[in-house]
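anyone seen this seq b4? input:
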Amino acid sequence: MFDYISGMRLEDFAYDLPRELIADRPIEPREAARLLVLPAAGGMADRHIADLPALLQPGDLLVSNDTKVIPARLVGRRGAATVDITLARDLGGGAWLAYAKGARRLRPGDHIAFADDFAAEVIDKKPEGDVTLRFALEGAAFGDALARHGAMPLPPYIKRPRHGDPRDRGDYQTMFARADGAVAAPTAGLHFTPALLEALAARGIACATVTLHVGPGTFLPVKTDNPREHRMHAEWGIVDAATAARINKARAGGGRIVAIGTTSLRLLESAADDSGLIAPFAGETRLFILPGYRFRAIDVLLTNFHLPRSTLLMLVAALAGLDRVKAAYAHAVEQQYRFFSYGDACLIERPPFALLQS
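predicted toks r here
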């Protein structure tokens, strides 16, 4: 990572957003979502997701995240107290790493009942607030119980009843979803439909998939005034050999690599060598991208609008330049774009690194 911003502070990534611009539901049809385009040469343009085939080039390769969101939010009882749990990672043998609302009241040995036939024991608790739970069920039996009693783990700015809304089971899942394991959606992928992929293919634009299981750390705020001191939570990702070869072939042939979402981008950058070649990858990544980072693996990013002071906004600022991103977000607010997970999107072409330093 090359950091050229001296004295960078958390407040550099703040902006004002009216509450009414936070989208509570996705727009239908999905292609009708608005798209703010930031070309590599500068400027910006107001378009729509349906314009993607015209905005991209033949030979470009889209790379999307095929992780599937599990209904990881559980509401249980510890005696008379209500406990909100968000599962984070399957540790095997019925054990799960989880985040608990009000975790300070939990102790190892506590029993949490989510239903008559579905319960867990607290077996460990960390000072940071995460807990380890052990369920009596695992494998397919656990998956069935989670499907019955769990809710989609929507971000906290989307308001829902305590036990969730059944509509989100479909709304908060991308068309690429295949591999169970995420507790947050790779939301840029929510804009895609089979019809849009067909239109892209007709233009000579293909699509590949990688897997990054998005964890609840994506919702955690940056609490340090110096963003460099923030510690990213690990997330598990996979780029198989066939996909790595396909990406490398596309770029060698002059095509651009278009990351569908920040999760795909972070995984590709984690799998890339210094020359930008992608190697097969299977493991954890904690890659934290701040302004000054030299991108190696991607040329274009499609992403939703991100929360103030978030690691994702920092990533976008690293790609497009902080001043330009702040101007783009101010424009989006003025033009009444819809923000965050169910909102509109931004298409950012990577400018020359020298331009970001000017």
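The chain has nine helices and 17 strands. The CA atoms of residues 21 and 351 lie 28 Å apart. kinda curious what u guys think
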